[in-house]
Design a protein that fits this description.
Blueprint: E1 2-10, H1 15-23, H2 27-35, E2 38-46, E3 49-56, H3 61-70, H4 72-81, E4 85-86, E5 98-99
Length: 107
Amino acid sequence: MKRYGSVIRVRPEKFEEYVRLHATVWPEVLRMIRECNIRNYSIYHKDGLLFSYFEYVGDDFEADMARMAADPVTQRWWAVCKPCQEPLETRADGEWWADMREVFHCD
């Protein structure tokens, strides 16, 4: 299992919409998340930032993320959510949510 954290800004005028969307995530999206070996997935908010945490339990992260990205329902979900988000300028090429480096963990 590997832990992942990432961050993005939420547009202030879209925050309530983002919360509403995530109160009723489409079942097909939740199923794809699980089928792509993601567990314990959470999104937190503070001061205009969204922090995402999940645990990956599969053997090929890149392949699972490609599978998720190719899923038509997930693509529609992302299209609905993207206008609510504002990526960080410091994100790496190809990232929407900026990956974070884990600096501490305690079980």
